Amino acid sequence: MARHAALALLIPVAGPRYLKPTLRRWSANSSPFVHSSSKQVFERRTYLSEVDVYDADDKAVEVMVKILLASGRGEHVMLNVQKYSTGE
Fold first, then answer.
1. CATH top-level class for 2-70?
2. How many C-beta neighbours within 10 Å does residue 39 have?
3. Nearest to 4, CA basis, from 53, 47, 48
4. Half-sphere exposure (CA, 13 Å, Cβ side) for 58?
5. Which long-range contacts (CB under 8 A, 24 or more apart) does 9-12 make?
6. How far apart are CA 19 and CA 49, in angstroms?
7. Where along the chain do its domains lie?
8. What does the DSSP 8-state code read for residue 30?
9. Residues 6+ apart with CB under 8 A from 28
10. How far apart are CA 32 and CA 77, in angstroms?
11. What is the pLDDT of residues 1-51, one digit of tens each?
12. Nearest to 13 by CA among 47, 48, 56
């Protein structure tokens, strides 16, 4: 979605680059006291991807972020924006 929004605004992008998923496992007792050796194992996988935006105007990036936040892709989607400038 981020790549499509950037290309619609004529912003040059590279990616998406898929990063290694993080895996978190934990267990809980399924029975109390005597049967504590029987446990249920749960796991959560978090998938990450990264899109690099190059040579974009600050206003264009703000519009792209607003489009992505308003797209309604679900409450479990997180967006992280890091801006770098050359000092010009």
1. alpha beta
2. 13
3. 53
4. 5
5. 9/60, 9/63, 9/64, 11/53, 11/54, 11/56, 11/60, 11/61, 11/64, 12/53, 12/54, 12/55, 12/56
6. 6
7. 2-70
8. S
9. 39, 40, 42
10. 36
11. 788 888 888 888 888 889 999 999 999 888 777 777 788 999 999 888 888
12. 56
Work out the end-to-end distance of the chain between its first and last CA atoms, rounded to an integer number of angstroms: 30
Do you know the residue count of the chain?
A: 88
pTM score of the predicted model: 0.60
Sequence letter at residue 48? L
Q: What is the pLDDT of residue 74?
A: 61
Distances (CA, A) of 44 to 20, 38, 49, 56, 76: 14, 20, 17, 35, 13
